[in-house]
TrEMBL record:
The gene is nuoH. One of its GO terms (biological process) is aerobic respiration. Belongs to the complex I subunit 1 family. PROSITE patterns: COMPLEX1_ND1_1, COMPLEX1_ND1_2. It comes from the Bacteria. One of its GO terms (cellular component) is plasma membrane. Keywords: Cell membrane, Membrane, NAD, Quinone, Translocase, Transmembrane, Transmembrane helix, Ubiquinone. It comes from Halosaccharopolyspora lacisalsi. This is NADH-quinone oxidoreductase subunit H. The chain crosses the membrane at residues 12-37, 83-105, 125-146, 167-191, 197-216, 245-268, 288-309, 321-343, 355-375. Its main location: membrane. Coiled coil: none annotated. Residues 429-438 have a biased composition (Basic and acidic residues). It catalyses: a quinone + NADH + 5 H(+)(in) = a quinol + NAD(+) + 4 H(+)(out). NDH-1 shuttles electrons from NADH, via FMN and iron-sulfur (Fe-S) centers, to quinones in the respiratory chain. The immediate electron acceptor for the enzyme in this species is believed to be ubiquinone. Couples the redox reaction to proton translocation (for every two electrons transferred, four hydrogen ions are translocated across the cytoplasmic membrane), and thus conserves the redox energy in a proton gradient. This subunit may bind ubiquinone.
Amino acid sequence: MTETARLLADDPIWLILIKVVALFAFLVVMTLLTIWAERRLIGKMQHRPGPNRAGPFGILQSLADGLKLAFKEDIRPVLADKWIYIMAPVLSAGPALISFSVIPIAPEVTIFGERTALQLVELPVGLLVVLASASVGVYGIVLAGWSSGSPYPLLGSLRSAAQVISYEIAMGLSFVAVIMYSGTLSTAGIVEAQSGGWFFALLPFSFGVYAVAMVGETNRAPFDLPEAESELVGGFHTEYSSLKFALFFLAEYINMVTVSALATTLFFGGWHAPWPLSLIGDGMLNTGWWPVLWFLGKTLMFLFLFVWLRATLPRLRYDQFMNLGWKFLVPLSLVWICGVTAIRGLRNTEAVSSGQFLLVGGGVIAVLIVATLLIPDREPPEPAEPEAPLSGGGHPVPPTDLKVPPTPPRRTSAGRQRLPEGAEGADSTTKEAPDGNV
């Protein structure tokens, strides 16, 4: 049992309730602030002001929008399946809240005289809880599209199901190397394993795969294809309004916070202070409430990445998006896992020294680069032969010698000249005298 698990095992019930309420309030406040910051940052990137009316710097705009949304009329389509239509938003937002419960925010603090860890629950399989919550959350999206009784939400929900399945596989494969180096599935144990060095530098490819997969998992731009307004109006939540729509909105942003916090936990040392701050006072900044500051700073860095991508990149086509997941991320992740396994095996048996390993690895990378450069470019395709003229083939076809008839002369304001009677295009009912009078 880890130190975090021992601390949490002694928590009284009132402290657990405080943590639950504080965690819910934290995620809701983070949602409001993330929406406001996203609108402000995208406004700055696109040279426009963004929200600037409600409160200082428009910081109360998200709260005003949420209150307005709560008082909107709640409309349910006639063809909707009532109970599933109501249950879908709850099923989407609930797992988003649960998955954050295994994220360690600080190692040990004192709350009202009780020593505890800033983590709701510590499980030996914490990473699997996050993956399971993400898998259950997609049911809310699928059922929302199906129960709406409309084609566009159904198409959006089917897209989301395929998208989440594809990128959950890539995300799970990115966890494997982290688990191998830390030796545990516990989130607190993974953070402790990074006390000597963060995994993003040791496992850069795993971090890159996770960074792409977390954007696809949360349906964010440029991977927001389940709610592509240019094709599907609003996607799976087109037929939702009022608080039900607000729950989908809340689930999306809570998922953003969760995957950002998980990236901090897996690859950026969790609550550990960044170097060189970690050297101050022999690790003094890694105790007490200081780790909360480092954890929030790293999480906000990833949330800024979400906003930056939305303001910068256009939406991908669906075939490009699926090819990226199945033909690039998954195969290369499998090759990377095999390489990491071989490295760990050689290091554990001490059959190869570090210098020899770096020499061989550098040689392999150099060979791959040279082979890539020497691959000849594809020759351009030969021009297609001109098509044969159209033939009837037993069916009537229009003639090929049609000519455009000549344009008739234009009427003029002076004299209103007309063609002589009997000529093509002449007006047979109107005659003009030589002086121009009718």
